[in-house]
Amino acid sequence: MKKVSIPDIERIRPRAVLVIRTGDRTYYASLEDNEPAKLLTEKLNPLTVGFSFRPEEDGVFGVLPWTLPRCDREVTVRPGDLLLEGGDRIVIAFSKGKKTVTRLARIGSAPDALLKKEGVEATLFLEWSE
């Protein structure tokens, strides 16, 4: 049996994973390392958001019940990015392109057509992993 030392134990740190659940679909997202993403995790309890499809932007958006600070920068957006717009709107992108936005998280697998329906509700909450 391997002897476990204190430094080995200290290296194991729980990590927050954002979970987005809608209907029978569950998406897992890696949170960005920025202040808005950290504040989002503090406010989830969980949170249910109604999303609307925006064909002109090829994404869905929902309105948060509070405002988050922005730290916009130019990024290459890819399908599955969770973005903050205007401080109180979150967007799940379905297409790729350059934008100046605050990225909150990246969904591991690109979201499917289920989210493109009008009036989809999704629940956001955290799970912890090691």
Polypeptide structure, described:
The protein is mainly β. The chain has one domain (15-129): Cyclophilin (Beta Barrel). The protein has 2 helices and 9 strands; from the N terminus they run αββαβββββββ. It has helices spanning 6-10, 35-43; strands at 15-22, 25-31, 47-54, 59-63, 73-77, 81-85, 89-93, 97-107, 120-129. The longest helix has 9 residues, at 35-43. The two termini are 22 Å apart.
Order of strands across the widest beta sheet?
A: 1-2-8-6-7-4-3-9
How large is the radius of gyration?
A: 16 Å
Give the percentage of residues in beta strands: over 45%
Number of strands: 9
Task: Determine and state the CATH class.
Answer: Mainly Beta
List the secondary-structure elements in sequence, H or E. Answer: HEEHEEEEEEE
Cα shape = globular
Q: Pick out the low-confidence regions.
A: none
In DSSP terms, counting alpha (H) and pi (I) runs of 4 or more, how many helices? 2
CATH fold label? Cyclophilin
